[in-house]
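All the exercises in this workshop are built on plain-text protein records. A record pairs a protein's sequence with a compact description of its fold. The structure tokens are whole numbers drawn from a learned vocabulary of backbone shapes. Once this layout is familiar, the rest of the handout is easier to follow. An example says more than a description, so a record of this kind follows.
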Amino acid sequence: MMETNQVEKKDLVITRIFDAPLEQVWKAWSETADVMRWWGPTGFSCPLAEIDFREGGTSLLAMRPPKDFGNEDLYSIWTYRKIVPMDRIEYIHNLADKDGHKIDPTTINMPPDFPQDQLHTITFKVLGANKTELTVTEHDWPQGQMVKMSEMGMNQCLDKMAAIFV
């Protein structure tokens, strides 16, 4: 029997097929210039991406909202746990301050269901000479509004990523 104070969690899984070779899709996750082109939902820009793409490394990314959403950059850190070239990236995602220090999401007015220390798994699969399947899994989301916002935001990021490959 589940305790009443336990929150049900689920993985958010998004799969996208890109018209691009595996190497190019991999670069979109590992190269600063590419990450800066797609990180952030529609209307947001990425003014900062300090990529330390190695197991044990931590990347610091900034997401700048459109003016009508405020003018505060939102920072994230990705701490890489496992990197299998051209196959898989595993990292722990957290919100951060501008110096790359992990913060509690509620301190910047995020809802309490915004997870901390969340595992993200990115997998790559060749489907043909110029087709690559990418799957993004954000593990253990509490059921609620934030998982829906994350799904919408990641889909918009992947739309922006697709534009890199045109």
Notes: The beta strands are 9-18, 45-50, 58-64, 74-84, 88-96, 118-128, 131-142.
